Every structure is written in C-alpha cells, then in structure tokens.
Amino acid sequence: MTETNQFLSEVISMSICYLNGTYVPLREACLPVTDLAIQRGIGVFDSLRTYGRRPFALTPHLERFFASAEQVHMTPPLSMDELRRIIREGISRMDGDSEVLVRPYLTGGDENRNGTFPSPRLFVLFEPVRRFDDRCYQDGVALLPLPQPRPHPSVKTIDYLAPSVAKGGRAEFFEALYCPDGEITEAASSSVFLAIEGVLVTAPLSRVLSSITRQVVLTLARESGFSVEERTPRLEELRIAQECFLASSMKEVMPVIRIGNILVGNGRPGPATRRLHHLFLQNVERWLD
Amino acid sequence: MTETNQFLSEVISMSICYLNGTYVPLREACLPVTDLAIQRGIGVFDSLRTYGRRPFALTPHLERFFASAEQVHMTPPLSMDELRRIIREGISRMDGDSEVLVRPYLTGGDENRNGTFPSPRLFVLFEPVRRFDDRCYQDGVALLPLPQPRPHPSVKTIDYLAPSVAKGGRAEFFEALYCPDGEITEAASSSVFLAIEGVLVTAPLSRVLSSITRQVVLTLARESGFSVEERTPRLEELRIAQECFLASSMKEVMPVIRIGNILVGNGRPGPATRRLHHLFLQNVERWLD
What we know:
Two copies of one chain form a homodimer.
Chain A: H1 3-13, E1 16-19, E2 22-25, E3 30-32, H2 36-40, E4 43-45, E5 48-51, E6 54-55, H3 58-71, H4 80-93, E7 100-107, E8 121-128, H5 134-139, E9 141-146, H6 161-167, E10 175-178, E11 186-187, E12 191-196, E13 199-202, H7 212-223, E14 227-230, E15 241-248, E16 252-259, E17 262-263, H8 271-283
Parallel strand pairs in A: 9-10, 9-16, 13-14
Antiparallel strand pairs in A: 1-2, 1-8, 4-7, 5-6, 5-7, 7-8, 10-11, 12-13, 12-15, 15-16, 16-17
Helix pairs in contact in A: 7-8
C-alpha cells in the first residue's frame, strides 16, 4: 500500500455517510451502478466544514445546495430543515475531536425523464478535515489556466473532468483556473481574487459560483477598508497585479504566486492575502451556526 | 409505481453487471460513494449492441474505450483481450433471446493523484436492447441546439449534464445538438449527418467523437455512390439542407426533421436517410464479431 493509499484509507475509516435514512461507516456506503451520477454525470453537491465542531455558514450552504439541485431539475427528497438536522447529527456522531468536512450530494437516481430526475438519491459524507500542507500558505501555489468557462457556473455540479484532464499528473499545479476568452473567472473549486493597484478584484456572481467564502472575504475586506471591484479581470492584468489568492471553505484564503508561466507580483505571498486570511480566522465565529 | 418506473424496473431485472471479477444481477451492483465518478464526474464508457447475439464492431468499440481511458489518464485494470472475453461471456449469460446492449465503464476509483487515477474501477453492464419508438423512424425527431462544444470531443466521457439541463423536461426534443459558434458538430450521444444539395456532410474526426456508426455509414455511403464531405456544416445551412439524420449504435440511422425551430427540408424523413438505414441493416453482418 502506498503512503497516499494508506492516508486515504485512514481518512475513510474515520468517516461516515448518511444514506437511505441511516448513518453508516463510509466504507459501507454505495450507490447502484444504475445511478445517473455514475452513468451520465448527473449530480450536484455542496461542501462545508466545522470550526470547534460547529458548521460554518450552514444556512448559505444549504440554500446553495437546494438552488444547485433546482437548476439541474432535481428536487431533494427532504426539506432544508431536515437536511440541517441530519448534518448536525452527523457531525455529533463523528469520533474524535477533529473538525468535520460535510458534503451533501444529490444524484440523478435511476430515472431520466427528458432531463428531469424524479427519483434523485441523497447522501451526506462526514469526513475529518484534511489540512493543506503549511507550505501552500507559506510559499503560495500555482494555478493552471484553462481557456474555457466552467460549465453551469451557477451550479455546484460534480463535473471536475476538465480540470482533472488538464492537470494530468502535473503536481506543480495546485488547481485549474477557468479563463474563458482570457478572463479570469474562478478556479476548479475556489473563488479567485487579485489585488491590482490597491484594489481587490474578483469576478461577479453572474459569471461564477455563489461561493460562500468569497462572500465572507468580500464582507471582511469592505469592513476593513479595502477597495473592492466585482468584475472579471483579464489574464493580461496579472502583469500589474501585486497579489492573487484562492478563497474556499477548505482553503480559506490561500496565496497564489503563479498562473501558468506568469509570476504574480514578486512571486511571494503578499500582505493583503495574509491580512485577509488573518481577518477570516479572527471572524470565523460570526458565521458559525 | 408509474409506467416508466415499471418498465425501468423490468429492464433492470433482466440485466446483469460484471464487477469485481464476477457477474451479478444488475440490482446488486454498486460502487462506493467514494468513487470519483460519483464525487467528481471522473469516468469514461462505451456502448455497443448485438445483432443475432453477436456484438457489432466489438474491436473498434474496445479500441475507443481504451483510447478514452488513456485521454483522461486512467489505465483499465485488464487487457483488451480480457475485456473482450468478459463481454462475450456476459452476452452468453443473458436470459431470453433479446439483443444485448453492452456498456463497459471505467471510473476514477478512490484516489486522485494530481489528475491521474491509479486505482480505477471497471464494470460492464449487460441489458436487453430497448427499441426506440417506431414513430422516431417514421416521423423523424427534433434536436435542441446548444451553443457550446462538447467538452473533450475525442473522449466518450460520462458527462451528459449540459444536454440534460438544456432539455429540462421538454419531451419534444429527442436529443441535444452541440453547435459551437453556429457549427453543427455532434449530438449528445450520436453523430449527425446532413444531406445538402446531394452531398452527405458530417463533421470531421478532429471535432467529434470517433463514432463507430458514423464510420460504418460513411463506408456504406461511399460504396453506394453518395458524395461525402467531412466538414462542419453551419446552422444556416439547415435552410438549404434536404435531410438530416442521427447515427449511433442504438439509433442506427434515425431521421431528424427539426433543429430548434428550423424545419429540415420538407419536415419529413427523406430518401437518403431511408436508403442509408436500409443499407445499414442489410450490411450489419459485415461488422459482427
């Protein structure tokens, strides 16, 4: 067993899954191969974590999950309040005291009725939070630009094939970055911010997923006196940008120091990124449910 | 139970799945929720059928399946000859005498190593062929044009979310048609041919999946004296096209009489389509393995 395999195996052994009305060890949770997530890529999900075992921004995540489902013509088989209870109970059932990553999924089920899915399947994964390597925060990471848009940018779909194919084994790239027509929109599973001449720039919600962390960072930045613009920066602007960072539930605020071959600023994490990550951690409590 | 559900249920009860080295009833075949097909849409497949219980163009389908896997950085856990034996045995294990739809799948497995998948999962579905309604062939079908390209056109991926979302319950459209920048490339799961001023036109392999049925139709058309052009027709050319049809393993040759709001020709299936479907059925034997 390789080191990666063993690590994966340990994480899986500590994880549980809510499926068909009960909580089971993650190893025992499976879906029929007839499910349209497997056969046709039909599925949406969401991803949130705990701090001090309390879920961060639970309601916005639930709202986004239900909105994702609606946009692909699926209706979750329970209410938002029922899912909220299931998530709270799942967190409390996790052994140990590590923080919990919670991911509800809704898959197409077995029946496709002209692009609607009358019998979707719901499951929720509860896993220990896996911290990213400290070096990602100390040294920053590199992104791989893709020339196309993310399909269905307003939906958190399970479709990550394009960024995966583009990476194709290249460990130097932390994540792919969707840059349709040279416009920087969002990374495969993160929002992206640039600091350009003292202004924090990030793509508007009309072009990207309604990221919860993006919204938190925007709120904190505005409260702290940052100038903010919601527009789609062009790749050429990287030449005058001082900083770039990713924002997501799991990454929080993570510095980016290179996009493709282009170094951002001086190629080191910058003060705005560090300040916003610090502000984020200081203010986590405000978004705990 | 609705009529659709009951039909689905009957088909599933007659089907089997090769998984983890054995053949099981389809109802019992499942994948762990940790599989990256479910979590991240990582998967490829292929689809072929039998005539007289003999597989049609088995070798080209196997070659395409292995080529799809390679392009998304997965290696099937067996050789092409082993998969061939598994498929032949699966066909022979199917009860009754109905023709068999065979679909091998390769999914990402549990481990994502920077966009490569060292432990992919393989399974093969064996189901009774479900015939399309005769009216599809008698009256022709309508397609729904989409403005984007199919992602990874050279790979048969499991990603059908975009055409599904676009249909969104509208039964009037049989299938979505990818028309990036107004160019007609391919339908969601079929090749597309137009007959324009006596010439049969279909997109070149540089733009579309290497469809086996497309190749068979091109061979038969050339042998029968049709003029053929492999180029990407524009949507505007529908106004001067006499006929349009889909080609795929399951549809064989199926007339298209409308694309979006535009009627093709006189809005009725035409003689070239009928002739090519007839030629296809007459020549099936040549491609049986």
